[in-house]
Task: inverse folding
């Protein structure tokens, strides 16, 4: 891990994300790219009547000053940190910054049980995750001494998730974390017999080119199963696949991802399918 992008809006939650990123940066000798999205009134930029260069410059300088003060944290001591200010709220720019700088991870804050309504500058996690080609680690609580020793990856173990699994495996290795795999079996239309579940998992692992253990955990819902199993094994991070730009039909749309990020006591990281 060489570079970590952290969106910052000066909120408590973005501070939590910054602290976790600092822990990871110190452990892996990585650089933090602290990104602030400065939302300017569109009229100031596009309208000849409303445009005021002096006022625009003043707002940018004010944001840069506040940014500098926000980054003056004891836990950032010894961490290489580069502040980046973008002048518009464009969610794809987070991924653009990550891609341009060859970043390995995006760490961002969440309001948790408030419903992921605001992450930075009034946006939400779904839009950032949808545009991100790299893992996004969602933090909603303060972690004084963040550790990543046990990483749980939950999946339906369908062929479309093989790439996400490979990314999760690489991510766990990058963190030097133990990778635990789980399939959540639920009642109803998605229920699989033990034999069918093992067959699906075996085919998945064969396509992924790995031979490792996958636990099957029964629960009333996928969300509860992941949380309960994660609590049982003492997971430090929970990983899930997402469909990215294809549409988060199962993640961060009022279902699995949102429930996990809202109710999990540990950080949740997404991997694009």
Result:
């Amino acid at each position: 891990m060489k570079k970590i992008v952290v969106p910052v809006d000066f909120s408590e939650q973005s501070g939590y994300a910054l602290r976790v990123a600092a822990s990871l940066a110190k452990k892996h000798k990585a650089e933090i790219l602290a990104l602030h999205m400065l939302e300017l009134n569109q009229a100031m930029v596009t309208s000849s009547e409303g445009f005021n260069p002096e006022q625009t410059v003043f707002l940018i300088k004010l944001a840069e000053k506040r940014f500098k003060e926000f980054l003056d944290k004891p836990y950032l001591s010894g961490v290489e940190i580069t502040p980046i200010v973008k002048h518009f709220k464009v969610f794809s720019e987070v991924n653009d910054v990550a891609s341009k700088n060859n970043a390995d991870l995006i760490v961002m804050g969440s309001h948790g049980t408030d419903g992921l309504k605001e992450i930075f500058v009034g946006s939400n996690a779904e839009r950032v995750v949808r545009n991100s080609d790299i893992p996004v680690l969602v933090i909603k609580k303060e972690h004084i001494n963040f550790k990543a020793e046990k990483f749980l990856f939950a999946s339906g173990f369908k062929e479309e998730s093989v790439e996400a699994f490979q990314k999760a495996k690489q991510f766990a290795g990058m963190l030097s974390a133990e990778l635990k795999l789980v399939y959540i079996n639920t009642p109803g239309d998605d229920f699989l017999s033990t034999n069918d579940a093992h067959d699906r998992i075996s085919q998945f692992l064969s396509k992924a080119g790995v031979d490792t253990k996958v636990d099957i955990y029964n629960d009333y819902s996928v969300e509860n199963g992941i949380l309960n199993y994660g609590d049982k094994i003492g997971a430090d991070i929970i990983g899930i696949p997402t469909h990215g730009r294809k549409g988060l039909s199962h993640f961060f749309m009022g279902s699995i991802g949102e429930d996990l990020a809202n109710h999990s006591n540990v950080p949740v990281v997404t991997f694009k399918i």
Strands lie at 3-7, 31-37, 81-86, 105-109, 136-139, 150-154, 178-185, 214-218, 237-242, 268-272. The first helix runs from residue 12 to 28.
